[in-house]
Amino acid sequence: MQNLRALAASAFITVIVVLGAGSATGAASSPPPVAAAPTGADAWRWPLAEPHPVTRAFLAPASAYAAGHRGIDLAAAPQQPVLAPHDGVVSFAGPVVDRPVLSITQPGDVIVTVEPVDSVVAVGDRVRAGQIIGTVGSGGHCPPGCLHLGVRLHGSYVSPLLYLGKLPRAVLLPTVTP
Predict the structure, then answer these.
(1) Where do the M23ase beta-sheet core domain residues begin and end (predicted)?
(2) I need a labelling partner for 73 at 20 to 30 A (CA). Which of 61, 67, 154, 177 fits?
(3) SS3 letters for 33-92?
(4) Amino acid 68: pLDDT
């Protein structure tokens, strides 16, 4: 029993040291701080009507410039209405390379981006969660019938599922010593 306690304490200290080291360095490759998932009136909404099949998951890059998938892709029908996931102010609406993009800035230095979206709102417009902000367009890395949803917290991409409440809880397992 004492060995089990020592093992659990060691694992806990390791987690604290690793997490603390990542935030103390301030390096671009360290993971961004994670905000608590909003609840109640602050709860986020999916940008599309149900169902919400995720066709490609979030894949955090190893560093700020490494490969990864900085959001989630959702199955969508062409011209399907796109909804504001949260209250905010439209900070960008226009083309980026080969696709129409829409970004909404929210309190807490959070920016949500959806693409491809043919916008029905303009920069500076205040939007409410659930409000129609456009329709699914075409272009970008998503094949036709796809909507990409990205979230940046303090400039770093985080999984949108943190805000949508669909991220499974992490489970710490004890280490096995030989």
Answers:
(1) 68-160
(2) 154
(3) CCCCCCCHHHCCCCCCCCCCCEEECCECCCCCCCCCECCEEEECCCCCEEECCCCEEEEE
(4) 81
Token pair listed for 25? 């360095």
pLDDT at position 168: 63
Cis-peptide into 116, omega within 30 deg: yes
**59-63, 76-80, 98-102 — which is least confidently predicted?**
59-63
Give strand pairing partners of 135. 81, 118
- Residue 137's region, left for phi above 0, alpha for psi from -120 to 50, else beta, is beta
Token digits for 58?
């979030």
Residues 6 or more apart from 95 whose CB is under 8 A from it? 101
Q: Where are the beta strands (DSSP E) in the chain?
A: 54-56, 72-75, 81-83, 88-96, 99-106, 110-115, 117-119, 126-127, 132-136, 146-153, 156-158
Q: For residue 78, what is the DSSP state? A: T
**What are the tens digits of pLDDT across the range 137-169?**
998 887 788 999 999 999 888 889 888 876 666
Whole-angstrom CA distances from 30 to 20, 23, 34, 57 are: 10, 7, 12, 20
CB atoms within 10 A of CB 30: 16
